[in-house]
Amino acid sequence: MGLFQQFVQLLGFASFLLPVASGSPAGHFLFPRVPEDPSVDPFYQPPEGFESKPLGTILRQRSVVTAYFGELPNPVQAHQLLYRTTATNGSAIAAVTTVFKPLFQKKGPYQLGVVPKEEQAGITTTLEYLIIQIYLANGYVVASPDYEGPDAAFTPGHLEGMVTLDGMRAVVNFRETVGITSKIPMIFGSGYSSGAIASGWGASLQSSYAPELDIKGWAMGGTPANLTGTLLHIDGSPNSGFLPIAINGLMKPSAYQEQLHSLFDRVVTAEGKAALDEAQTQCTTAALNSFKFKSIISTDVQSEGPDILYHPVLAPILSENIMGINVSERPVVPVFVYHATKDQIIPYANAKSLVDNWCNQGVSVKFTTYEAGGHATTDTLGVSDVLKFAESAFSGTLVRGCTKNTKLDESLDPLALGVNLEPLFNALSVALNKLQFKF
Asked: Which interval of the chain is the signal sequence (predicted)?
């Protein structure tokens, strides 16, 4: 199940935020209704003639009630926006972003944080939404785009970058509703793991695709900078279930269906078709279990074997999705990249190559290496550094150039973000301890 096909549920601690607010709208304390399936919900259907609208045009909007575990209402204003964006082939599509207005907008009416949602479920989603809650508690307006577009296209970088940038345009168009009075608000984008595809490619395409946006910086962690490298890293491993999900994502209509459909229709075996069908119909956790320890480059799955990676149809697409190799697709504002050397899902070497390429291209990069922990832990360990980087980006105090540092500790400091956020950091610790058993 893709993120576009799931109703947004912000997992936050109402008890932590309620004392901060005064006179909060009563409607935001109502228990949320069960959402309609997007396939029958008219909100997700773009109106006739939307293709002619400018990029980022808001096509539909609605207020929503967000909730912790879908049950306990989270007392923040939340809105969904359906907006016009672009498919990989340049055609018009519509996507959704969810905008959250904090109860205490102490950062001023001009700053927006963009945190792409990840296509994950269970405790991982809990962890991600707790991190979003920290941004809200810091006073930022937060936008969380469904960067995979209308058909849950997981991994195609150009698509996800454009959807993310157009989501920013949509929020700029919606700014007055969430208390952003500046006509050109300052923006900071951040994403981890699959969300780092969206933030990394958003940073890469910003200068050519959305130069008018006043983006001050980007952060990305556990970044899948090279799809082939990631494939080889997890093929046949406990995390190989991501591979059928990724193949399905590349074959979606908004991605590379036109190029890839006939190839995979010809080479995929009955076993491979079953794996792709399961990944298409299951949520992430179930799909991971279905293909655990299996190989996507095995002839049991597709007749080409390892040679599939060099096929003249697939190879250019995989190359096109390597972040950092095209000088014309380099970030024009500072970026923060962080990665664990022992990342079980996304190879550290590819992140390092990305940073090296960007530095050689003149990009300002801060690169933090985590020697302890792995993919799941680094998501949380990087929170305080990302927020500090965002603060510096908004204040204009980031140091230009390339810097690299290494962190050895994998423990969480509950006071790292201030005493008021200690309850959230404690909750992150609990979620993180549970999550480590999944990888």
From this structure: 1-23
